[in-house]
Amino acid sequence: MPFEIDLLQLVQLIGYPGLFGIIFLESGVFFGFFLPGGSLLFTSGVLASAGIFNIWILAPLLVLAAILGDNVGYWFGAKVGLALFKRADSRFFKQQHLEQTNAFFKRYGKSTILLARFVPVVRTFAPILAGVGSMEYRVFFFYNAVGALLWAGGVTLAGYTLGRAIPDAENYITPIVLAIIVLSSIPLLFEWWRRHAPVKRCPKAIIFDLDNTLAESFQKPTPEVAQHLARLLRGLPVAVMSGASFERMQTYLLSALPPDANLANLHLFPDTCASCFLCKDGAWTREFNHSFGSGEFERVTKTLEAGISETGIMENTPQYGEKILARDNQVTLAAIGIDAPADLKAAWDPDRKKRNKLARYLRRRLKDFDVRVSGRTAIDITHKGVDKAMGVRWFSKRLGVEPKDMLFVGDDLKRGGNDAMVIPTGIKTREVAGPAETARILRELCSVCGL
């Protein structure tokens, strides 16, 4: 039996209840990601144009199903969704689906709830991650409702309009549905291409972010990452720029490198580039340090503590170790503690709404400082103008290499991200979703650079 007859008969067979159920499940129940919601919306609209369904019942019903499905996903994520980060892969669940969705959140923030409607798989897991991350419900519901209107209502009405405009439109269901599938897959294909396009030219110098790029936060790099990083150091200047302290870089990064690594080629920029360390004759020496002046440190920490209290962003939040990390050149908030498990860090504030609220409070009161949301749970505070862009310019000047001939690899290059500030320098950039992608890029760099 031809596919188009099967699909048309299927939609007629399941009727209003079946369509409602499929759209509901695909919108927010994690095992519903494989259901063909988009194609069924369009097909039902075409059938409505032929009088099989009443469009004024069908469209509102499907919009309602999409809204309710997202709501169920949100509450599921809020109550039990955190366990998904530890769940083993199965026939109906893959950790890569969470990773794809988390990458969307990192790139588009709260707008993910709306945009994900048009991206298969991501639309199912987006509301779940919003719940896990405690996105403010009224904000979630707004994007949920608008997305449902545009997706469930819009695609259904598009099918209805086309069915009325083209005689016997049901005969063209197959190519139309295939076109919908292809168009829906474009964002995923583009994201895949953007992340997997091979490195084709060897840069003259390379800069890496540390947390969630070379390694998970407060973890050592994998042996593969460490070995390939050491290979790069044989022939290229390499810098690591991070909000981490120099001591943490020593503990987690330097200790993981092979004993014969050429540390003379390694430049460390801890504390969000407030300082720089070079290895000379086997000893690490500080090249510069933009330290806080008398009274500045106390002012920053007191303002931060007051902001935490007034914004209430950390109420009922479990703590895992030290949360305010105070150094002579930077104050960092590690919102749920430096010892928190990686899955809790990933889930606590995926859309950055909590930290952005606190950051706005701090910027109004610390106008002579830079306040940056960084990583998965952090806020970094340094002197004005002390950031990774400054570090790129200093590194470029020291080497005598133009930024356009260097490469920056980081996990947060989207607009507003804590790595995005390097983009105006003209340096080439490559965004990664985590250390696994960094390992692949390191392999490609070693190959293309002949190291």
Can you describe this structure?
It is globular and about 80 Å long. It has a seven-stranded mixed beta sheet, covered by helices on one side. Strands 6-7-9-8 form a four-stranded antiparallel beta sheet, covered by helices on one side. It has helices at about 5-30, 35-50, 55-80, 95-110, 110-115, 120-130, 135-165, 175-195, 225-235, 245-255, 295-310, 340-350, 355-365, 390-400, 435-450, and strands at about 205-210, 240, 265-270, 275-280, 285-290, 325, 330-335, 370-375, 380-385, 405-410, 430. A hairpin with a 4-residue loop joins strand 6 (about 325) and strand 7. It is α/β, with parallel strands linked by helices and about 450 residues long. It has 15 helices and eleven strands. It is about 50% helix and about 10% strand. The chain has three domains: about 5-195, no CATH class; about 205-290 and about 385-450, 3-Layer(aba) Sandwich (Rossmann fold), CATH 3.40.50; about 295-385, Eukaryotic phosphomannomutase, cap domain (Hypothetical Protein, Haloacid Dehalogenase-like Hydrolase, Chain: A, domain 2, 2-Layer Sandwich).
Name the descriptors.
single chain; 451 residues; alpha/beta; Rossmann fold; Hypothetical Protein, Haloacid Dehalogenase-like Hydrolase, Chain: A, domain 2; 3 domains; seven-stranded mixed sheet; four-stranded antiparallel sheet; 50% helix; disordered N terminus
